[in-house]
Please model this.
Amino acid sequence: MSGGVVLRMRRRAFTLIEMMVVLATITVLVALLLPALGRARSVAQMAVCASNLRQMGTATQMYLGQWNYYPGNAATLSNGQSFSIWQPRLMLFMAHNPAVFYCPAEPISEEWWNTFASARNSRSLWVNATSGEMGYGYIPGEELFSIPQYSADGEYANFSYGYNVWGTEIGAHRQLGLGTGTYLVGKAHNAQPTSSEVVDPGDMIEITDREFFLKPQYPYAYEVWPSRPDLNPPSDVHNGGSNVLFCDGHVATLLQTRLTTLKLGLSPDAIPNNMMWNIDHRYHKPF
Model:
């Protein structure tokens, strides 16, 4: 090209050392980022779970406003089969939305439809609701949450949340928790306390996250037993703790150890931990 200068650009390749430096930098950045992403995911899951419980708390207050007693845990059919009732009774005031009863920090197998629809072909005696079960919150034709409930492979099914049925002393003449419904007494609300019977609603536990077991050791998968952490304890899924719904509708996150530290006699720590499970807001000897 006459009268002009041609500049030739020579491509320069990365050296091996430069590539290793870039890769090392990316590795360090990823290592720094992953824990932050994990924490963000954990915080998001905890927030969704807390929102679920607040909705359950609002539904409970509406339920109390209509019937003046807590929903109870379970009922019994004429053939002796028991089924869970606290979830469908609360769903009467929640647009019948089962998604609220699944904590996203738990395995997907605990999702309401996944867990219980999979049990259709199990060895569990399956029963669909009739018009007689409408008083328990079920829609006619809906599958009852039978107890025990099995997954498709025959194992006991899990559930994300548990209801405080017994308080700290299982088998007490009058349940110290929020009652069994018709499971033991065969009547609509004999074993379910009224709103006025709960002495301190702001410090009385209603529902908590429930511990997940690969092979649940006990079939009653819809309640929590604080005095039996080997069976159905509150969960440690949220950074070692559980989201907790109290009877006045507020939600807090408490360490699993605090929720289950009940067997220390009358030590200063055991007393308040024990009292918040019981309707009389007193210390009772754990089961």
